[in-house]
Each structure stands twice: as structure tokens, then as C-alpha cells.
User: Fold these one by one.
Assistant:
Number 1:
Amino acid sequence: MNILLAIDGSSFSHAAVFEVRRRPWPPESQVLVLTVVEPLHPEYAGLHATFVPLATEAQKELFDGAQRLVAETADSLKEKFGDEQVSFAVKEGFIKDQILETANDWPADLIVLGSHGRKGITKFLLGSVSEGVLAHAPCSVEIVKIRPHGESH
């Protein structure tokens, strides 16, 4: 089974990692840990030409941090799945699109990702990556949610 684990470093993606780690999986299952860095759009930010190098450096730092995030997550999964069964990738682009493209190209049997649980106007303005992935995925999708404090099973 090919498991695409999409993470962003949030508590919601930590919950998704926990779910993948705690479950039994078929022998020889493969895990690809993916994170996506959104591209820099200086034209949208109204950046003056003198600020572009600073923004470019900030983008590089984001990419480097994303690389560390997926490498550390992959290392934590290797004890369960084995060194050869876990890989990782950082892609640049729109998050939903890159998750779907990776799921198609790899190919994934299951996509696992956390849900930020946004509602109302926040969901409308920011969109929902998990809903977009669920609606367009070429395979099964598991959206891991965190229960609010005080809520029981």
C-alpha cells in the first residue's frame, strides 16, 4: 500500500502522523511524507524591487524548514516501516494541487492529512485543502481531526 502523508507542521498534521504510526499496515507498505511550500508572489504583495531579495531569502528559509520537517517526520516513521519504505518530498506550488499531483504520479493508494477544522468565513476565505483533496483525489483519503478539549468518544 502506498500511503501519502501530507503534513504542514501543525498540530493537525502531527495528529495525522500519529494515526499513520499507530496503525497496522500491510507488509511492505510505502510511506511518502510530503509538504508543500506556497510560491512567492511579489506582485501580489506589492513588493518594491529592493525587497525582492529579502523575500526570496525568506522563501528559501521556508523551503529549508519544510525540508527539515519532512526529513524528521520520515525518520520517525522509519522505525515502524523500515528505512527503504519511507521517503519524503518538498514541493513548491499550491498545496491542494501538489498533493493531488503527487498522489497521481506516485501513485498513492491512500492520502492521509490533518484537518484544521475551519468554519464559516475563515473557511470561505482560506478554502479547505482537505476538502479539495477529498473531492478530487484519485484514491482513498483519510482526514484526521483533533477533538476539541472536553469532547469524549
Number 2:
Amino acid sequence: MSNNLSAELTSQELADDIAVSVENITVAYRSYKQRPTSLKENLIAFLNTGKLRYYSTFDALSDVSFQVKKGQIFGVIGSNGAGKSTLLRTIVGVLRPVTGQIRANGSVDSLIQLGAGFDPELNAIENIYLNGSLHCLSYEEITERIPRIIEFAELEEFALTPIKYYSSGMFARLGFAAAIDKDPDILIVDEVLAVGDERFRKKCNAVFDSFIARGKTIVTVSHNLNYLRDNAHIIALLRKGKLLFVGDPKEALALYSSDSYQSAA
């Protein structure tokens, strides 16, 4: 997903060594407690309250700020419901913040949901064309990419098979290969490598290593704490939508594992 989807995502006035700047981001969700379903119920609600509103709001993220430098793996951790995926979806422009802004230096793409937009009735090659068209690539650009994607995904024998017959591992390989081939400057990753076998995960990690070696940037949510400890340059810790810590990975992981964090999560 490219950064042209979000008006909040801009590279204006960022220092040359900064890849992403998240500035005072607040993202609110609606919570419906009781929702009238008939005209009569709507009329009664309007007469009682003077408005047609049946929900309250809560902050999934609250005043979150940090910067990510170029060439870094920036990890995001936290308990379930801490706001990790909301943060990534806001960075790539799927969600719009109520307040604050996000600025980026370079092209942004995401591995948030592998195979999003794929049609199960189509084969791998047809889905690569579909995926590429959704990202505004030309027919020629997509055609040039196909051999690389099929080879990386190791689907040469199944390229013409409808993907509804694929195993979860085959589907993951195709989704990852199609996404990573666009080679963005900034890659947003949301625990997509939990599927697939160990050999495939190692192959993906090798791609990430090459990515960083070329000065590109990765922002990732992961429950693989060992991976983050060994590979992340900086880790941000979230709890209930608030940013508790940004800094050294060992300190972040120690705080995440502490009794005080777990009891309040």
C-alpha cells in the first residue's frame, strides 16, 4: 500500500536521516452499546436525546509520537488491544488519525495482510496482475515482475492453479513475494510471517536483512520477541493505546515482561 493513500503522510521538512515521523497521533474508534434497528426506535432516540447517535468513542491510540531513522528495524510490541496494528494501519494510510500527522521520506508499502485483494478463483499469475493493478502498476510493469514473484514464491508448478486450492503456506509465499517485489523505501510489517514453514521464514528474514543493508527501513509488529531482541534497533512499547517506552530493545522487552506492565495490560 503506497503512501499516496493518506493525505497525512508527507515528506515535508523531515531530516535526511529520518524515514518516518509520527507526531501526536490519536486514533478513535466507535463503540456501539445499543443500536436502534427500526424507524420507531430511531424516532424515540431522537426525541429523547435530540440526536441520532448510538455510540461512544474510545482512543485506540492516544497522543503517540516517535521517529524512525533510515536503515533501522523499528519494533512495536504490546499486549492484545494495545494499539499495535492500529498504529501500523495509520502509518500506511488505512486509518486516519483524529489528531496529529505522519510524515515519511520515500515510498511506503505494507505487509499487513498477505494476499489482501486476491481472488481465490484466479490463479497466481492472474492474481499478480490484479494485485499490481490495485497498486497502480502498468501492465508492462506487472508482466516484468511475474517471473521473479513466481520464482521467489516457489510456485512454478502451480502458477496456473486457482489459489483457492493453495495451502496456507503457498498462499503466504505468493502474498509475500508479490508485496516485497515492489521494493519500497519503508516497509510496514504486521506479524505476517507467523504462517509458512521455518525455511520460508528464514528466506523472508534474508530479504529483510538485504533490505536493511541497502539503507531501507522496516517498522514491524511481532510477537517473536527473540527476533526483535536480535534484530531490532529500536522498540516501542504500547499499552492501551499509550506509548510507554521507545528505545533500547533489551530495556523495552524487560519492561514488557515485567509484572507491572502485565498487571496493568
Number 3:
Amino acid sequence: MGIIFDGLEFSYSGELGPVLSGLDGEFRKDEITVLTGTSGCGKSTLLYLAAGLYPGSTGAVMKGRVTVDGNEPGHLPPQKRCILAGMMFQNPDLQFCMDTVRNELIFCLENIQTEPGEIDKKIREALDFCGIAELENRTLITLSGGEKQKVALACLAAINPGWLLLDEPFANIDEESARSIAERLGKMHSERGTGILAVDHRLDSWLGIADTIRVMEDGKLLPESLDARSLDPEKLESLGIIVPGGSYSPDIPPAKPGDTVLELSGIEIMQGGRTLLRDVNASFRRGVIYAVLGQSGTGKSTLFSALSGVLPYGGEAKLEGRDIKHLRRSDIGKMGFITQNPQDQFVGGTVRQEILTSLRKAPDAAERSEEILRRIKLWRYRDISPYMLSQGQQRRLGTAALIAYDCHCLVCDEPTYAQDRRNTIAIMDALCRQAREKNIALIFSTHDRQLAKDYADEILEIKEGTLHAVTEPGL
């Protein structure tokens, strides 16, 4: 019993060549396996093929095949396919169909013809499994990225497929919640016999739960399996994998704090009759790097959305002394935003146009756009739509576009989401050097406390609806 890839070659576009080339490998059902490797090497594509979603919805298999417990998932109807292997997307927004958490769970259970009298019981069990019973009647659009990931996991728990295929399941979830869910996934594996194959760049939450680590590189599985119980930090670093508990060793100049560029006074944000944030006060200075921490759903993205004008708020937020609600036309562009979902910010028809939009005033825009795209390893994709990139590649593109943009304050929501170690360091070094060299106030949110410790000059955390300075040693 297992997932077997036999000489598989898969491509999205003939012009770009195969994404997976001669892929051979087996994932055993009696092991919890974590699949890692550089961003864009084909990990998510592998999961989509195992789930049977590809090539039916996109791309083509030129050679080979994939089987799951002896079945070819791409040849099964959806209701049988999702029982064989259920997948959680990297971006859960792409798989939700209904308006509320409860209705989404009902939809999933009805699709597998669950007896009506069993539905409420299975909903309660699934919500309790993920520790989100309080979200049952919430509308999905009001949830944070981390809460949405937990809902997506709850949907899988309710369906109870033979395999769970998880694409970055903890990318937007705080460390405590990630450890808790990982333990419950381990329980599903041991008690129900559920096979688990997870794509993840961070191994921390899987330690003590996973059996095997597999590594992908350039569309192929490396032959060597790593024992998850005895990982060699030097080996992980040589493969570009984030080392649990290891430093990122940042390469940025020291801070030279300047004047205050953004000041928040008594910020309050309400949504659906609930107070999400209250009495938020903070000052952000030029040339200084700030990290914002907080558990999933505490309001990090909410605060950033309010500053970008997406959500209404009470209190005052002043950019260089002027209320951001009443900025002049000449002030527009002084504040830049990298959103949690990079697809929300794309404006160009191609990857290169996305960079050129940010460089529209530069006399050497063509040369600089090529330099930027080569640096972030996206030059070969320059003429395709940004939406055809992997999630990790989209994040690199969105970040690079904003780095090229001239602003005074840059707000980044999870800038290293779905990135391997090398790209995490490259993104953060580039952002932080930009902050130093151009005297920009850089504010970034993260669930990675080591990243915050290594890169931020000042660390803030949202707790109980307000913002606090973090002063305790070791965070």
C-alpha cells in the first residue's frame, strides 16, 4: 500500500519543458513522510498528481504513471478520488466552495454521501480535531490565513480519506497550533491507518511525528531518504532545507534609525460585531526593521489590511504626519504592501510585466527587470502569467516587485511563506538591505520566531487584541 511514481514526466506547457522529469519513487502508507526541497522544484505538482487533480484540470502526462494504493487517481470519479486521497491546497481559498465553515463541512460530507443523521456528529469531531469549534458559524472570508488552513484540515478530517496530501499545512499557523495539529495527525495515522504525505519547508512541527524526510530537486526525488528522528543539521543546510532551531545568519548592515514615518494611535478594528483589535499604539522609524508576531487569527493581517485601506478602523494612523485616510495624490505610493496571498497584488499580464510595473519610472527598466528576475530565478518564466507560477515562486515575484518600488514604509504579510531556506534568506536579506539603503521602515509579520529574532531590530506581538513590545530573552 503506497503512492508510487513510475517514470512520470509531466508538463504544464511545452514551451517551459517538463516540471517532473522521469520521476520515480514510493511513499509508504505505514510512514508519515515529509517532502521538502527548493521552491518551484515540483513538490505541489507531485501532490496534485497523487490526488488525481492533474492532468484532468491542467497539464499533460507524457510518460509514466502514478498509483495510490494500486489505483490510478486520475481515472477515478471525484467522489471516489477524494476518499482515496484528500488534498489540502497551499492556498485554502482555492478549494472552498461555500460561505460558512459549517456549510463547507456539510458540502464535503454530502459529496461523499454521508448519512444525514451522521453529519452533525462528523462536523463536531472534525472541528474538535483542529481545535476550531468556535469557528463553526463564521463566514470563511472573515477568517485569517491560519484559521482557513485549520478549516481545510477539518474538511479532510471529516471526509477521513485513506491518504492525506498536505501542501504546506502549517504555513500560516503559529508554532503552538502547528505542533498541536501535527500531534493529532500522528494520532490519525496510528489509530486510523491514514497515510500522510506532507509538503513542508519547515520541519520543526513534524519532529517526533514524521518517520521519513524526502527531498526533491529539479523535478526529481533524490534517492536518499532521511530519518526524521536523526536529522543532520549540516546535511539539511547543504540541501537548502531550513534547519530546526538554526539561525538564518542574516547579512544586513546595522540600523541607523531615522525619523518616525508611521504612527498608530488608539487603532480599533471591528468586524461582524466583534472587536478584533483595540488601542493599538506604535511608532515606526525610517531605517528600522520591525517583526510582528502573534498566534493565528489574532489580527496581524487585519492590522495590515486596515493600513492598506481595505478595512475600516477607528483611531489614527499617520504616514509622515498625515492621516492615511486623507492622503494627497502625491502621497500615494509612499506605503507599499506585500499581501499574504501574492495573487491579490498582481497587476501585470506576465511575470516580466509585473516587475516592469514597479520600474515604470526607471530609465533602465528593461535591464533591471532582467537582473531582478534572474536573481529570483524566474527569468525563464518571464513571458507567462504570474498565476501559472507555484505559490513559492509567486511569493518571490510579489516581493521582488515591491522591492523594486520606491516607498517610505514597506509592510509585508508573511514574506517568506512557502520558501526554502535559501530563498527565505535571499528574500529577507533583500528586504532588509532595501530598508537600510533607502531608509525605509520595514514591517513584516511572521510565525517564525527565529526569523524575527535574526532579522528584526524591534519585535512586536499581538496578544489579547492589542500590540505589545517583546522584551523577554529568546522570545
Number 4:
Amino acid sequence: MAASTPEGRLEEMGLTLPDVAKPVAAYVPALRSESYVYTSGQLPLRDGELLHTGKVGADVTVEQAQQCAQQCTLNALAAVRAAVGDLSAVTRVVKVVAFVASAPDFTGQPQVANGASELLGQVFGDAGQHARSAVGVAVLPLGAPVEVEMIVEVG
């Protein structure tokens, strides 16, 4: 695949999009509405298993949490691709929200979310620059340390 495509850039980085993660409750992984695709929150699942569990700042390091955010983003991109057929259809990453299961004194949520944001910049270039929220939470589904959702615009 050519490096001029999002999938090609992922391949150059040694990354591949996984199969779309099965929902853990009653929802769909992604939904297209006109020119936008909204993903559901994606967990750091790889081959059906969480990369890490626990709270960032206690059980999980910032570096491990960044890896989790990257995996969440790969899972979200897989859901986007399933909704539109090809990541080349993405014209802009609009918004990313990263939820971080945080130890009570942990305040590095933005650094964790960079695991998602930096990947999107590498994959989509300027179109990967986005608005973002990084939110500390008490707990996430299945004990995951990170969950990421996004909104993308497609052409």
C-alpha cells in the first residue's frame, strides 16, 4: 500500500489496523451521520485482550498508558474504516476525547492523550490536527486504563 495513504503510513510505522473491536455492551463501534463519523469509546484491546489494566499513576505508567491510547486510536480508526470503506475518505480528524482511569493524584492526562494525538498527526498530517479533551476518571470498562473516542469528517 502506498505511503501516501493513511493505511500506507500506518504500515510504514509497523502498525496495522485490527479487526473492529466487538462492543462490550449495547452500541455500535462507529456511526456515520452525513459527513461525520462518530466512534464509540474504544478500549486498548489487542487480539481481544487489554494491553494493561488499572489506574494510570498507580498500576500503569504514563508510557504504558500512551501505548494504550495508541491502541485505542487504532481500534477507533478500524471502526471508522468499517463505516466508510477506506481511511483515505477522512478529510479531517475533528475531535478526540481521551478518558484516563487515574490515581487520585495523577494529573498527566494530556500526556497520555498524546499517544492518540501524535498517531493521528502521523497518519493524517495536517488533517490529523484536532480539538481534544483529556479527562481523568475513576474507572473505565473492564478495568482499562484508557478509552478514546473520536469524530472525523469524511469526503
